[in-house]
Amino acid sequence: MGVLLSVKNLSISFQTASGELKAVRNVSFDVGERETLAIVGESGCGKTVTTKSILRLHSRDGGVVKDDSQIIFEDQNLITMSKKELNQIRGNSISMIFQDSMTSLNPTITIGKQIAESMFIHKKAGRAEAMLRAKELLKMVGIPDVEERVNNFPHQLSGGMRQRVMIAMAIACKPKLLIADEPTTALDVTVQAQMLDLLRELQKSVGMSVILVTHDFGVVADFADRIQVMYAGHIIERGLKNEIFQQPKHPYTWALLNSIPARALQRKSELYSIKGTPPDLSLPLSGCPFSARCEYCMPICKKRLPEETYLSQTHGVSCWLTHELAPKVDMPKLDGG
Ligand code: SF4
C-alpha cells in the first residue's frame, strides 16, 4: 500500500485574548492508499484543526501554521501551494464531510444543484449530465424518491438524509481522500450505524482513503484500519486497530477505551470517567501533557515530554512508562474488548 498523504511536523496556533494557543504540536502521520485512519480524542485535542489544515480550512478560523510544517499529497505540499492550485484539489481529489449538515449545505439551493456543482467545476460536466449524475449519487447513498427529492431544499430533509446528501456531494468527483469529521455525531444511534455502513461500502466502490475524526471509540471499532489518539495537540498513541483496542499502552488511551458505554454494560460496572480536565493550551506545557490527570505519573513526567517509542512497526506510544528504565506497571485488564 502506497502513501497517499504525509503530514510532517505540523504545528498550528491561534492568537487568543490570553495569548498564543498551540492547538497542534509537531504532529506527523501518513495515510495509506485506500486505508481508513481514525483520529480519536476529546474536544479540543487538535484532531479537527489537524484535518481542517489538510485543505487549509484552519486559516478561516485564524489558525497559523508553523513554517516547517508540511502536508504532502501526491508529491505536492498543500501548505505552500497557491489558492488556485488548492481549489483544484478541494472537493475533487480531497473532500470533507462535517458533522453539521444544516450549516454545511446551502439552504437556498436544491440538493441536486449542490451535488451537481462540483461536477460543473472540476469535471467540466454539462448541466444535464451533472444532474443525471447527482440523481445517481442520491440513489447510491440511499435517498428514496430521487426524482422528487433532487429538487428539495436541505430543510425539507431529515438529519439523516441531509448527511447522506453531504456524503453524495463529497464523493461526486470520486476523491482519493475523504475526511469525515464526526460524521455521525448529530444522528441517532440507528442512523449512525447505517451511515457508517454506507461510508464503508462507498469507500470500497470509490477506492478512496478515509480519515475519520471522532471522539467516540465505539464508532471506530468496525471502521478503522489504524487509529491515532490525540491529546492536547499531540499524538500520544498510534497503531493498528487491534493494537490499540487490545494492547493500549498509554494511560489516556486505556482510560478512553474504558469510557465506552458498551464495555461498561458488558462488564456490569459504572462508566469509567477520566478525572480532571485537559491543560490550557495557551499556557506553557512542561513534560507530559496528560501528567495532571494520570494515575501513573512519575517525577520525570512533569519535567520532560516523553518521546515516541515504537513497540512494533506500527504501534507508537508517547509515555515514559514504555521507557526501559521505567517501573513495570500493568494497567488493569480491559474488559469487554
Ligand atoms: Fe502518565 Fe507519565 Fe505516561 Fe504521561 S508520561 S501518560 S504522566 S505515565
Automatic annotation (TrEMBL):
<comment type="similarity">
    <text>Belongs to the ABC transporter superfamily.</text>
</comment>
<dbReference type="InterPro" id="IPR003593">
    <property type="entry name" value="AAA+_ATPase"/>
</dbReference>
<protein>
    <submittedName>
        <fullName>Oligopeptide/dipeptide ABC transporter ATP-binding protein</fullName>
    </submittedName>
</protein>
<dbReference type="Pfam" id="PF08352">
    <property type="entry name" value="oligo_HPY"/>
</dbReference>
<dbReference type="GO" id="GO:0016887">
    <property type="term" value="F:ATP hydrolysis activity"/>
</dbReference>
<keyword id="KW-0547">Nucleotide-binding</keyword>
<keyword id="KW-0472">Membrane</keyword>
<dbReference type="GO" id="GO:0005524">
    <property type="term" value="F:ATP binding"/>
</dbReference>
<dbReference type="InterPro" id="IPR050388">
    <property type="entry name" value="ABC_Ni/Peptide_Import"/>
</dbReference>
<dbReference type="InterPro" id="IPR013563">
    <property type="entry name" value="Oligopep_ABC_C"/>
</dbReference>
<dbReference type="GO" id="GO:0015833">
    <property type="term" value="P:peptide transport"/>
</dbReference>
<dbReference type="InterPro" id="IPR017871">
    <property type="entry name" value="ABC_transporter-like_CS"/>
</dbReference>
<dbReference type="GO" id="GO:0005886">
    <property type="term" value="C:plasma membrane"/>
</dbReference>
<dbReference type="Pfam" id="PF00005">
    <property type="entry name" value="ABC_tran"/>
</dbReference>
<feature type="domain" description="ABC transporter">
    <location>
        <begin position="7"/>
        <end position="257"/>
    </location>
</feature>
<keyword id="KW-0067">ATP-binding</keyword>
<dbReference type="InterPro" id="IPR027417">
    <property type="entry name" value="P-loop_NTPase"/>
</dbReference>
<keyword id="KW-1003">Cell membrane</keyword>
<dbReference type="InterPro" id="IPR003439">
    <property type="entry name" value="ABC_transporter-like_ATP-bd"/>
</dbReference>
<keyword id="KW-0813">Transport</keyword>
